Amino acid sequence: MKLGTFMMPLHPPEKDRTECFAEDVEFVVRADQLGFTEAWVGQHHTVAWEPIPSNDLFIAHVLPLTQNIRLGTGVSIMPQHHPVNVAVRLAFLDHLSKGRFNCGFGQGGVATDWGLFDLPDPKTQGLMTVESIDMVLKLWQADAPFDFAGDFYRIKIEEANSELGIGELLKPYQQPHPPIGMSVIRSDSMAATMAGQRGYLPISTNLVAPSILTQHWQTYSAGATDAGLPAPERTRWRISRSILVADDEARAWDYALDEKSAFCRAFEYLIAVLSAAKMLHITKHDPDVPDEEVTPEYLIRNLCIIGDVPSCVEQLQGLWETTGGFDTLLMIAHDWDDRPLWERSMDLLANQVVPQLPSV
Fold first, then answer.
1. Domain locations in the chain?
2. How much of the chain is in helix, strand and coil states, percent to nearest 5?
């Protein structure tokens, strides 16, 4: 099994922003040194718990500080950006990285972000996302003149001068384009279907039970079948989990369930965000669980991997068996309010836990 990370990232709102960003940089550098294969970086505009508003700028900053880890937008929230901006900025990043770049596309799930950009209902945003991705892919292949007309965007260059390079858009370094990932949240996710139809990398959220993760793969595979593609290899699948490994299991659990820890508080925030977006149901191991029973402790006990090395190995082997196997485990990046604990957790995960796990 490969080891990567998904960085929302998660930081308490009262923490100094500059300190948060410096910590995020240190986290990626350390992950690179420990042999993490990839890091996906999130972006949001109106939630202090996830303070990176521009993941492409963050990636550009950490590129020269790292050697091997692949860096990806996790994700570019398509309805919140014009497709032309997405296409040229990501192509530029691909060149700066000399191909050490992945691009993730998605819709976004924060209600206050939707309002900030005056976006329509989530279903319409889903249609915008699909059209925007298609526009980006066309721009990465087309030479002017062109005229791409959709339901939400019209992108055109009517006159061009190829000899002088006028009307020429930057194409990616990797051809035909960087590897594309899509975040998968709901069991019947349109993103999972689309990813399967197009051969994109499915990135399953850390906020659903293992049984729903299994449905993610079924939906993804059905999308591939619908498109007439061969059955997809599980080497494409990424699964995200919040993971805390400690030398002492009691120490790990004491920290995780401490209501004052940034780890526990992060789940209060996630519950609020998911409730506002009417998505709290995705966190439940049983749909009959009442909303009021979805507490931080409920999510920590049902969705996280926590304990000492033997316990975490056992839990992750159980996740592997339940899902049928996957390629890359993405550790969610949590705030380092207890830096020694989290640094040790990364070391143990990379050097003692993951080497004991199976691979596809």
1. 2-140+169-248+304-356
2. 50, 15, 35
Tell me, which fold does domain 2-140+169-248+304-356 have in CATH? TIM Barrel (3.20.20)
Angle between helices 17-33 and 339-348 (to 10 degrees): 20
* Most distant CA atoms of the chain, gap in Å: 68
For residue 200, the surrounding DSSP H or E stretch is none
Residue of 298, 296, 308, 289 lying closest to 334 (CA atoms):
296
Question: Exposed, middle or buried, 98 (CB in 10 Å: 0-12/13-18/19+)?
Answer: exposed
d(CA 298, CA 264): 11
Q: How confident is the model at residue 300, as a pLDDT?
A: 98
Q: Cα angle at 204 between 276 and 219, to 5 degrees? A: 100
How many residues does this entry show for the chain?
360
> Cα torsion at 256, 261, 267, 273 (round to 10°)?
-170
For the question of whether the overall pTM of this predicted structure is more than 0.70, the answer is: yes
Positions of the chain with pLDDT lower than 70, given as ranges: none
pLDDT at 22: 98
Rg (CA), the chain: 20
Which stretches of the chain are DSSP H helices? 17-33, 55-62, 83-97, 111-116, 122-139, 190-198, 210-226, 249-257, 262-276, 296-303, 309-323, 339-348
Which residue type does 51 have?
Answer: P
Distance of alpha carbon 1 from alpha carbon 355, whole angstroms:
8
> Rounded distance, CA 170 to CA 141, Å?
10
- Per-residue pLDDT at 96: 97
